[in-house]
Amino acid sequence: MADQLTYLFSTRTSKDLAERIAENYGQHLGKINFQEFSDGEFEPVLDDSVRGGRVFLIGSTFPPADNLLELLLMIDAAKRASAKNITVVIPYFGLARQDRKDKPRAPIGAKLVANLLTAAGATRIMTMDLHADQIQGFFEIPVDHLYASTIFVDYIRNMNIENLTIASPDMGGAKRAKNYAGHLGADVVIAYKERKKANVVEEMFLIGDVEGKNVILIDDMIDTAGTLCKAADILIEKGAKSVRAMATHGVLSGKAYENIEKSQLMEVIVTDSIPVKNNLSSKIKVLSCAALFADVMKMVHEHRSISSKFII
Length: 312
Prior knowledge:
This protein is of the alpha/beta class. The protein contains eight helices and 14 strands. β5, α3 and β6 form a beta-alpha-beta unit.
């Protein structure tokens, strides 16, 4: 068992999740005093001495960019306060869709964020369901990449759905869907989509048979929900009895809530990696990832293996 003191702090927009993580961890969140200037500049100051301790800084880096900047400033504050270990817990890793240079003169935003976190003083990263697995390789420090399947697979089993089929809304998620199906003993179908630009699906085709099946669409994130809703339409058109969607990160931007509410989706299940306004749609259900992160944080602190927490 580790005898090093631990300290937990949170960014402001991730405080609800961080409080649930702290409760599961068995420790209170540390206090941060924020000084704000009239032009929008802010300065987070850690209220506790963290000298020689292990600091867990919790914060998802969804827009606006201030969320990332706030986390970077907190890392710098912990480093300058002589923390021995700085583990940055990022339930939702923003800019992960910018994982490669897919067009001329485009940035690789995920790599830039990795560089910034390391330069600020992070000694370890903990995150969940990166949009692209290879982002782990952008870091020169340890990365604990957790999977929401640890939460979702048991939840699906407890639903006792007959004639279950797992679906991927695109080719990129085929491996994820196959892994879920393997654990659940279900069939797999794939929706093949063609885009003209981001967030706009032009055409979609179904690979596989869903006649008389209850389908669960699996994805890593839901942004505008356009892809999921279009996939649900096609699945129902092809004979599916019901369609649900399950995604780790509920980004839910633009008309996402409206799209989901008007769609043929029976239910949409996400985690609380990003705050969700679930009062805007009766179809959205939120499962907490707090216990998963708290357990892994304890294992890391106590230098124990975390392999038991990896389903997929």
